Amino acid sequence: MCKYGLSTCKKMDELEAKGPWAECVISTALYHCVFLTQILDLPAYIQTTRALMITGSILGLPAVGMLLMSMPCISLGNEPQSSKNKRTILGGVLILIVAMCGMVSTVWFPIGAHQEQGLMSFGFSLYTGWVGTIFSLLGGCFLTCCSSESSSRAYQDNNRFYYSKQGGGNAPAAPSTNHAKSAHV
């Protein structure tokens, strides 16, 4: 038995779930979804949420590509470290733009839907969007702030170390005389 008002009990029995792409009614025996296909008839917050999500998805791919090409293990010819740092900063800024798109869409959509229809369920995708936004903000900040020209001085092309059998260090130890086989393998 429900101890709240009739309208609240009805809403608790039949919960509506809404997303930017579909609107669903969930009850104990029914799960029915209607896809939101009429783009121009939708409210502004749904259209904006869709546009921001698509923009974030489109900008995310070049950002990841730039960041992969700026890794220390990938060399594009004889490029200096400063160009890799610039590429890392640009990739970090793109990741920050993706995070801002995600943050605005995952905060603005539930506010608009709640104002329009009241008590609703948004599902785990909303919480996943919040977590993804936080990680994108942190990653973009780290990439942008920690890749500067001053850090490239430690990794200049002239400071490479090559290890070989010849060269400094300790002299090799004399072979053991009581060993049956040769010490040189």
Count of DSSP-assigned helices: 4
Strand-pairing-aware structural class: mainly alpha
Going across the biggest sheet, name each strand in turn.
Answer: 1-2-3
- What percent of residues adopt helix (DSSP H or I)? 40-55%
Q: What is the first-to-last residue Cα distance?
A: 85 Å
Largest sheet: 3 strands, antiparallel
C-alpha-based Rg, rounded: 29 Å
Mean pLDDT: 78
> Which overall shape is indicated by the principal axes computed on the Cα atoms?
elongated
Beta strand %:
5-15%
Work out the number of β strands: 3
Unreliable spans = 151-157
The SSE order reads HEEEHHH
Task: Describe the model.
With 185 residues, the chain is mainly α. 51% of the residues lie in helices and 8% in strands. It has helices at 6-13, 44-69, 81-117, 124-146, and strands at 15-18, 22-26, 31-35. Helix 2 (44-69) packs antiparallel against helix 3 (81-117) and helix 3 (81-117) packs antiparallel against helix 4 (124-146). The radius of gyration is 29 Å and the shape is elongated. Mean pLDDT is 78; it is low at 151-157.
Short description:
The protein is mainly alpha-helical and 185 residues long.
Secondary structure layout plus pairing:
Layout: H1 6-13, E1 15-18, E2 22-26, E3 31-35, H2 44-69, H3 81-117, H4 124-146
Antiparallel strand pairs: 1-2, 2-3
Helix pairs in contact: 2-3, 3-4
